[in-house]
Design goal:
The protein is of the alpha/beta class. It has 10 helices and 19 strands. It has a 7-stranded mixed sheet with strand order 15-14-13-16-17-19-18, sandwiched between helices. A 5-stranded mixed sheet has the order 1-3-4-5-2. Helix 9 packs across helix 10. 45% of the residues are buried. Bound molecules: S-adenosyl-L-homocysteine (SAH). The site of S-adenosyl-L-homocysteine has 16 residues, from helix 6. S-adenosyl-L-homocysteine (SAH) binds next to helix 6.
Length: 400
């Protein structure tokens, strides 16, 4: 039986199908013809057939009447519903890209909408995977997601990290579950180095694969230099800098668990002697380093997103401004600043403007050397700006 025949319709208002036709996958609640298909008639996560105002089928998706993004398109082919078979197919397509890109099985396997799996993120750590379902529609097929993953990869263990803040927007609760066998620590290989991370206790899914290419780039700038890695987490940038020949590396993070791992990761790669850590608030530590007139040849600033929602834009931009100014103040003459932002609400041009303003405020001049973005295991969906979030600007900071 063709299951899609049994899907309830969700009809859009006149002209509101244009964005979907242009490639987007989301429907906002004000775009639904609620007289024809009242949103309150749907269960959160229910699968539907999306119809244009004229009744033409746009494809299949799922609904959440309680969310501003009230529906997401899953397939433009009306014969395909979100079931195990479609999940297996999409995961295989996603896997083919990652296998082409990377020699070792450490990567983001599925990146939501960009891999045509709205609301699903899967990170692979060799034999173990971390799964995040961020929408009611994906949560509703959680069991099929796990079955599909088992068919595609046969992981030895899976951690379901249902603790990301975006789940609240969908009215979903927070929890963490484990299936199979998941060790306390797993090892990630990146650019020839090994990092140990905790999948259950670590930040987000345990490791930030998105910065991989940018960390590799850093190695070109550090030979013989003194490097500061701020918001260092488990030492992703700092240990790469040590491997790139840095004379000395200092990592700063507020989390004591992260600091412990940095030491373990430095030791595992043979760089304990050149790597020091400071536990504390980044802004305070930078202020203290400035007061002590400490100077670094390379400063990396890779903070958590300061702008999570549109209404945080102003305060967030100020935080980026303050942070980058502090970063520049501890840079030696002719220093390199690597400044990142993972806030998708902060456009690259605006981020660049903030760096320029920070440099002018200190009477320095800036050369923009390289612009890094998220690694290709986080593909950008060209119709969905939210999927394009990471900026890493490599700048040379000179006296004016
Ligand atoms: N640079 C890291 C990722 C950073 S994640 C990497 O490439 O892997 C953000 C990190 O910032 C976390 O480890 C968190 O503990 C730390 N953090 C958050 N707020 C902080 C603050 N105010 N001061 C210092 N560290 C902070």
């Amino acid at each position: 039986m063709n299951e899609s025949l049994s899907l309830a319709p969700l009809r859009l208002k006149k002209d509101e199908e244009r964005r979907l036709r242009a490639g987007h996958l989301w429907v906002y609640s004000n775009e639904v013809d609620t007289r024809a298909t009242p949103l309150k008639d749907f269960q959160p996560g229910q699968q539907v057939q999306l119809l244009g105002h004229n009744g033409k089928v746009l494809g299949n998706g799922y609904v959440n009447p309680n969310s501003l993004i009230c529906a997401r398109l899953v397939s433009r082919d009306p014969a395909h519903v979100l079931d195990r078979s479609l999940l297996v197919h999409r995961m295989n397509v996603a896997l083919a890209l990652r296998e082409r890109l990377f020699d070792t099985p450490h990567y983001r396997l599925v990146y939501g909408e960009s891999d045509q799996l709205p609301g699903l993120v899967i990170d692979r750590y060799g034999e173990v995977c971390v799964v995040q379902c961020t929408t009611a529609g994906m949560e509703a097929v959680k069991a099929q997601v796990l079955e599909a993953l088992d068919k595609v990869l046969q992981p030895q263990g899976v951690v379901l990290r249902a603790d990301s803040a975006v789940r609240q927007l969908e009215g979903l609760d927070a929890y963490q579950e484990t299936t199979g066998s998941v060790p306390d620590s797993v090892t990630v290989e990146e650019s020839g180095l090994n990092f140990s991370v905790s999948l259950q206790q670590g930040q987000k899914t345990g490791w930030f694969y998105d910065q991989r290419m940018n960390r590799a780039r850093l190695r070109n700038y550090v030979s013989g230099r003194r490097v500061l890695d701020v918001f260092s987490y488990v030492g992703g940038w700092g240990v790469q800098a040590a491997a790139g020949g840095a004379a000395e590396v200092m990592c700063v993070d507020s989390s004591s668990a992260a600091i412990d791992r940095i030491h373990a990761n430095a030791a595992a790669n043979g760089f304990s002697e050149k790597l020091a850590t400071v536990q504390g608030d980044a802004f305070e530590v930078l202020g203290q380093l400035r007061a002590d007139q400490e100077k670094f040849d390379v400063v990396v600033l890779d903070p958590p997103a300061f702008i999570k929602r549109r209404k945080d834009i102003k305060a967030g931009e100020q935080a980026y401004h303050r942070l980058n100014q502090l970063g520049m103040q501890v840079l030696a003459k002719d220093g390199i600043l690597v400044s990142a932002s993972c806030s998708h609400h902060l456009a690259e041009a605006q981020f660049q403007r903030i760096l320029l303003q920070s440099s002018r405020h200190l009477d320095r001049s800036l050369q923009l050397l390289e612009r890094g973005h998220q690694a290709p295991d986080h593909p950008v969906h060209p119709a969905i700006p939210e999927t394009d979030y990471l900026k890493a600007l490599f700048c040379r900071v000179l006296p004016s």
